[in-house]
Amino acid sequence: MKIDVEDRVYLKSETLHSLNNINHCFTTKCGGVSCGQVSGLNLGFRCDDDPHNVTGNYRLVAKDIGFPFERITAGRQTHSANIRIITDEDAGMGVSRESEMQDVDGLVTNVPGLPLVVFYADCVPVLLADEKAGVIAAVHSGWRGTVAEISGVAVDIMMQRFSSRPENIKAAIGPSIGKCCFETGEEVANQFDADLVTEKKNGKFFVDLWEANKRILEKKGIVQKNIDVLGLCTVCNSDMLYSYRAHKDATGRMGAFIMLKN
Ligand SMILES: [Zn+2]
Predict the structure, then answer these.
(1) What is the DSSP letter of 73?
(2) What is the Å distance from ligand 1's center to 88 Cα?
(3) Which of 23, 57, 95, 150 sits at a 20 to 30 Å CA gap from 219?
């Protein structure tokens, strides 16, 4: 579902939206105060953008969706499979204050009122929530993270550390590069199950990262009907979404946010 606030557009998963205790969103590039090549609602501090604009964009998201701005927490993403458990003391790191978190591509917390965010352009954002156990996760799963099954690592931590049960976990796989556009070389394609790869006549390979992530979650016991694939390709929809491929490197970042309500 789509939510418009003035000129800003947010996307929500019906599956996560149906949970009373969870607030979440996937941002788009619409609206926002950034200019130039990252024009719009850029949330990447490491892009070529004025940090004041990026902070201003985070403030807009916080106000629009209902997150406490000063507690929004992000890791320093490096396409790793590292997950960090976020405590109250970490609140605000990476957005309203410096982060000491290096090489962190997934965040898990059971602290209410602490919004987690991962940012991305074409990589796959995965949000996870277990309302019963009171634990959530935000995961940045590019092709490297997908090969390393980072979303599965997040589920393991939810189960082992927070007594989450897979049948109670709901998941949303957000906007990202679809199999229509994720063209790779053979060396990347070979790292995925053969049925996730389409080989075109011209010798090009196309990989389905959405299905790959869905399969990782199902392997952990998450029920198929509880996995919502938004199915929106960033390259095909680059008028409203930032895309590394479509914009040839100079692009902003969107955010996938999730928070347990107080
Ligand atoms: Zn596409």
Answers:
(1) B
(2) 39
(3) 23
pLDDT greater than 70 at residue 249: no
pLDDT score recorded for residue 164: 98
The average pLDDT across 89-93 equals: 96
Alpha carbon of 233 to ligand 1 centroid (Å): 5
Q: How far is the CA of 58 from the centre of ligand 1 (A)?
A: 27
Q: Which residues surround ligand 1, an ion (CB under 5 A)?
A: 178, 180-181, 233, 235-236
Q: How far is the CA of 237 from the centre of ligand 1 (A)?
A: 7
Rounded to the nearest angstrom, the distance between the alpha carbon of 250 and the centre of ligand 1 is: 18
Give Rg (Cα) of the chain: 17
Give me the domain span that covers residue 18. 2-260
Residues with Cβ < 8 Å from 248, sequence gap 6 or more?
A: none
Are 24 and 173 contacting, i.e. CB atoms less than 8 angstroms apart?
Answer: no
> What is the distance between the alpha carbons of residues 100 and 116, in angstroms, rounded to a whole number?
15
Tell me how many domains the chain contains: 1
CB 26 within 8 A of CB 125: yes
- Distance from residue 80's CA to the centre of ligand 1 (Å): 24
CA of 7 to the centre of ligand 1 (A): 24
pTM for this prediction? 0.97
What 8-state DSSP symbol labels residue 161? Answer: H
User: DSSP letters along 170-189, please?
Assistant: EEEE-SB--TTT-EE-HHHH
